[in-house]
Amino acid sequence: MMHQLLGPEKFRRGTDLYFERHDGDAVTCEDFVVALEEASGCDLAQFRRWYSQSGTPVLEVSDSLILAQQAEHFPITKAIYSLLSTLGNGHELAAALGVWAMIFLGISIMGAFVILGKRGGSIFRM
Q1: Where are the domains of the chain?
Q2: Per-residue pLDDT tens over the stretch 11-68
Q3: Which of 78, 7, 18, 80 is CA-nearest to residue 42?
Q4: Distance between CA atoms of 66 and 125, rounded to whole angstroms?
Q5: Which residues, 6 or more positions from 16, have their beta carbon under 8 angstroms from its beta carbon?
Q6: What pTM was computed for the model?
């Protein structure tokens, strides 16, 4: 991600500076970010949070509103619940998807008849 943000040239200058300063040393993630910042002239403070907060992000998905009521899960579950409520209940969504599937199937069959011409019926013969 840092490579994408800085571009290949600035990132390479940063890694060259990093190895020049710290080759063979015990280093920290902060040392790497500082070298990239100094060589590129870009502020990479947003990436420091990756290194200061321990743990692995976990995404828990549930169809229950119990998670939405817990403060740490609220933003994600609220967004999912809002999206689902705008789509309607499961029956309406299934019906809409069924209609689109039938339209797609009809267009596909018509396309096959156009391509095959008079032999169009042969695709249904056994």
Answers
A1: 2-52, 65-124
A2: 999 999 999 999 888 988 889 999 999 999 988 888 877 777 677 767 666 665 555 5
A3: 7
A4: 54
A5: 39
A6: 0.43
